[in-house]
Amino acid sequence: MISTLQQPVECDRALLRDTTLALTILQRRRKDRARCKRYVYGDQWKDRITVDGRVITEQQYIAEQGNIPLKNNLIRRIVRNVLGVFRDSLEQQGDSVSHDIALRELHARTMEEFLIGGVAVYRRRKSHDSDNNGIDYVSPASFFYDPYARDPTGADMTLVGECHNIPFEELTHAFARNSRDYAVLCSLYPPSESDRCRVYEVWRRERRPQFIIHDPRRGSVRLEDGGRGSSRPKAPGCNIGWRIEDRWHYYFFTPEGRILASGRSPLENGSHPYVFTAYPFIDGEVHSFVGDLIDQQRYTNRLITLYDWVIRASAKGVLLFPEDALPAGMVLETVVDEWSRHNGVILYTPRPGTPVPQQISSNSTKVGIGELLEIQLKMLEDVSGVSGALQGKLDNNAMSGTLYDTQTRNALTALRDLLDTFMSFLRRATS
After folding, report:
1. Residue 340 domain-assigned?
2. Is 209 helix (H, G, I), strand (E, B) or coil?
3. 278 and 340 share a domain?
4. N or C end of the chain, less CB within 10 A?
5. How many domains does the chain fold into?
6. Residue 122 scores a pLDDT above 80
7. Which residue, of 224, 259, 292, is where some domain finishes?
């Protein structure tokens, strides 16, 4: 890593432009991931709607109508089933992708992230002697890449990066080589309410013309710039060649564009350290497994909430309260409040000819909510590909073991593409 703290260097405009563009274009993907994560973990009524010019959440709107926003988290159950299938696949693969319990746990949590957001990211370290086979998990929320890439294998990527929010102590440990470097970092990151410092790490694929100077006497090779305005170097007794080098370069810089460190890729293949996959990445688009289930989950929640409202309305009914029966010194609001209590008491003096207050209730009309719920549950299985066989459900108790195994294998066909994509990612990360 080449430090540039002593000689102030600003990012070139192209690097800042490409980084800003990647962060801006991929903002929608980060919002979609956050929404899918909310639905998986049960926060399913926070989508915003416009009512009478107000932008409020669905939960707030239902509460204002006097109803309770109910939910039945079906997505979470489906995700757990897919994770169970994935763990079985890991055991069948053996040591080809994971060799210890900690690494298998990391893969399982990354698989869960892949199901939620459609993106999985690892970072490879130089040494494989450390934990997790030399790989680190990277959150897709802080990861970005070339928004114009279209190759599912990532071969046409020209930029990848990550946003780091790290403590000041970690920042100085990474970039300060002496007291002067420490002073520069203190000026770049003055004390604030937040104890975190943001650093952008960007890896960019660069093709640079270079002269290759080989000194046979010393057995050394050095590179010099061979671009526009450069002349052929003078090196008597040396062999001089010219080429366009295709190599990744890294840059660490502040939000203001001040470069903290930069250099050529230290990896043997000259590439970047990230291994990631996005699904399905058709025309660069990401559509997660959970994203396909949200519409079915939302409609199921609406039916459950509607069912609850119908039951409560039919059970309570309508109160008929004669005006002449209103007790002296009591307002109608007090009567309504007492009547709604399960142990409410209303004192009044009966008057001749005045009927007693009564509540009228009737059975709710069957509108087919139960049938709609059954249809939605069946459609959720069809959309997700997680059928009853994968969930351990039997169509009937007389089903043979052979037939059950056949149905299970057939059910795995719907998940084959998703699982194979992630397994390919693991092999690339651990190879």
Report:
1. yes
2. strand
3. no
4. C
5. 2
6. yes
7. 292
Q: Does the residue 385 lie in any domain?
A: yes
Residue 73: how many CB atoms within 10 A of its CB?
17
Q: Which domain holds residue 184?
A: 2-26+73-205+250-292
Beta carbons within 8 Å of 16's beta carbon, 6+ residues apart: 257
Between CA 240 and CA 221 the distance in angstroms is 10
- Quick one: 199 and 261 in the same domain? yes
186 and 311 assigned to the same domain: no
Do residues 217 and 237 lie in contact, with contact meaning Cβ atoms separated by under 8 Å? yes
Q: Are 88 and 94 a contacting pair, CB within 8 Å?
A: no
In a shared domain, residues 287 and 336 = no
Amino acid present at 267? L
pLDDT digits (tens, 9 = 90+) for 356-385: 777 776 665 666 788 888 888 888 888 888
Which two structure tokens, joined as six digits, stand for 100?
């210890």
Q: Cβ(383)–Cβ(342) under 8 Å?
A: no
CA distance 268 to 206: 16
Q: Which amino acid is at 418?
A: L
Q: Are residues 257 and 398 in the same domain?
A: no
- 124 pairs with which residues across the strands? 135
Of 292, 324, 349, at which residue does a domain stop? 292
Written as six digits, the tokens of 197 are 């410092």
Separation of CA 117 from chain center: 4
| Ramachandran class of 229: left when φ > 0, alpha when ψ lies in -120 to 50, beta otherwise | left
Percent helix, strand, coil in the chain, to 5, is 40, 20, 35
- Adjacency order of strands within the sheet including 119-124: 135-137, 119-124, 274-278
- What is the C-alpha separation between 417 and 152, in angstroms, rounded? 14
Assess if residue 175 is contained within a domain: yes
Nearest Cα to 431, choosing from 127, 96, 143, 165?
A: 96
pTM higher than the cut 0.90: no
Q: Which DSSP helix (H) or strand (E) runs through 220?
A: strand 220-225
pLDDT of residue 148: 93
pLDDT confidence of residue 145? 96
243 domain residue, yes or no: no
**Token pair recorded at residue 23:** 């962060």
CB 90 within 8 A of CB 97: yes
Here the tokens at position 412 are: 């795995």
Residues 157 and 173 in one domain: yes
Helical spans, DSSP H, in 70-201: 74-93, 101-117, 168-175, 179-188
Reduce the DSSP state of residue 70 to 3 states and report it. coil
